[in-house]
Description:
- With 470 residues, the protein is an alpha/beta fold.
- It has helices at 18-26, 38-41, 49-66, 79-89, 103-118, 148-163, 192-196, 209-222, 226-229, 242-246, 252-261, 265-283, 305-313, 319-331, 336-348, 354-364, 370-381, 396-403, 408-413, 433-438, 454-469, and strands spanning 3-8, 29-37, 72-77, 94-98, 122-126.
- It has a 5-stranded parallel β-sheet, sandwiched between helices.
- The model has no long low-confidence stretch (mean pLDDT 97).
- Flavin-adenine dinucleotide binds at residues 230, 238-242, 245-246, 270-271, 273-274, 277, 335-336, 339-340, 343, 361, 365, 367-369, 372-373, 375-377, 380.
Amino acid sequence: xxxxxxxxxxxxxxxxxxxxxxxxxxxxxxxxxxxxxxxxxxxxxxxxxxxxxxxxxxxxxxxxxxxxxxxxxxxxxxxxxxxxxxxxxxxxxxxxxxxxxxxxxxxxxxxxxxxxxxxxxxxxxxxxxxxxxxxxxxxxxxxxxxxxxxxxxxxxxxxxxxxxxxxxxxxxxxxxxxxxxxxxxxxxxxxxxxxxxxxxxxxxxxxxxxxxxxxxxxxxxxxxxxxxxxxxxxxxxxxxxxxxxxxxxxxxxxxxxxxxxxxxxxxxxxxxxxxxxxxxxxxxxxxxxxxxxxxxxxxxxxxxxxxxxxxxxxxxxxxxxxxxxxxxxxxxxxxxxxxxxxxxxxxxxxxxxxxxxxxxxxxxxxxxxxxxxxxxxxxxxxxxxxxxxxxxxxxxxxxxxxxxxxxxxxxxxxxxxxxxxxxxxxxxxxxxxxxxxxxxxxxxxxxxxxxxxxxxxxxxxxxxxxxxxx
Length: 470
Ligand SMILES: Cc1cc2nc3c(=O)[nH]c(=O)nc-3n(C[C@H](O)[C@H](O)[C@H](O)COP(=O)(O)OP(=O)(O)OC[C@H]3O[C@@H](n4cnc5c(N)ncnc54)[C@H](O)[C@@H]3O)c2cc1C
């Protein structure tokens, strides 16, 4: 009788799952495990919405497995030790997992692979979290694409040539799951938050496949308007699926099916941006620590700590920036347009190194994904592959007037500005004393004065970039 262990990581679901599907086909008895990785968790502040979100996803998996008299083994520690230990204890023949392209994960998986080999087992790794990975989409010279539009064109051509426009999925037949009913520390019966030293911290979104599917169902009702609505934070025109995608609580093939087969080109394009950044990270791992374009590492950032703190706290005096950052601090979520605006503001108006902003996002984003976050920041700071040119600088006031025209989003997160007229609320420092009094908001007292002068800083940013890029 052959036995396999499937190690779930950023693929927390039991359907359309490449590694699980293969293990259940190849083996008579299949176990599942998940590791709370000490090496990651020990570095985090002890309130983290992502831990609770993952926990909710695992609880659902455990409930679903119990219908088959099975369960998921929950481990805590260094995965390179814990996974082989469990593998040995269960007397498995093979370890199955889906590939993760982050440099830390690559190293970790190599070490686990070696340990499994030492135990006489085999390790089988599958492509799952993206549709096309690493070097699968190449140009005519056999090189990796560094620009998104031709990458997307080649991606779609390859897809249509291979699959005729129909997205394939992996069938998962849970029949061969091993019977597991006596776990001492199952996800349901043990207080894992306490063991891990974390406080329970629920996000606005609840983790798990059922919730992901609910969001997808809701999004399908408005998907036809995506192209028009997606840039307006007050409109809820996007899918809100990113945390579910990040933790694999919904399969990327299911989403591509909705996008491609439904003819929703703009949304499909966003899913392909995600693949593009995963590919960039796997092919150019230096981006994790440095600019994709090395000359951008010569820039001497002039921003001050005080301004960085004001940005983090949502106290810069620029309403759209402050509303975005306050919303982010409280919820761990931020709309894509706002991520672009606040990132550009940090590096091109406050002149603070984009890596500091990237790190702050990484600590707090519910959907934090190294490839997408790094790609987004390098796009905004102009240091990335297919980035915005350095001289393109978002004006926070015009972005605000354009994308939050009725200031609905601003009023939700900066309620002290509610009394200003539609004309003044985007730049309240222009309101005279009478207007401020009528709005019951004194600038400099009830709401901060702008921390910098945008026009001056724009000029300084161009100078700073030019100097660094000489
Ligand atoms: C500075 C910055 C940092 C970012 N950090 C992250 C991050 O850590 N994790 C993350 O998932 N996305 C990140 N993004 C991309 C984007 O902002 C989010 O994916 C999006 O806001 C999620 O909302 P949604 O699920 O409603 O997206 P939708 O508009 O419904 O898009 C569907 C899915 O496509 C993918 N996607 C959409 N836009 C992008 C993009 N520009 N790059 C890569 N994938 C994309 C996401 O998986 C998203 O869930 C970042 C963007 C910027 C500018």
